[in-house]
Amino acid sequence: MPQTDMPVLRDGWLHLADHPGIAVDSKAWFSWLTQANRFCYWPTTSTFRLTVRKEKRRHAYYWYAYLKHARKLHNAYVGRTEAVTRDRLQRVLVHLMHKIALDRPKAHDGYT
Length: 112
What we know:
Elements: E1 8-10, E2 13-16, E3 19-23, H1 27-35, E4 38-41, E5 50-57, E6 60-69, E7 72-79, H2 86-103
């Protein structure tokens, strides 16, 4: 479960404790991202949740997504603030889900 103080992006809306909500991809969304440092992306179509964090690398800020599965932390680059859209977050989630699927141990078929 995400931390209780972490904003959650779900159903196209960013849910904040002290705000009625912000529509993703809106001007208010990008304005909020410039001030924020993390949030949880939890689409209704998935049981997986991403923690998305802003990190400083090489004198600039970039967003990265993290997904923990089977005690392993997977991460992926999301982009600069202007690239953090609902579509981009969904593509990153799919990428990480494929990464998890590839990391699963192969079943032993008895022939190798």
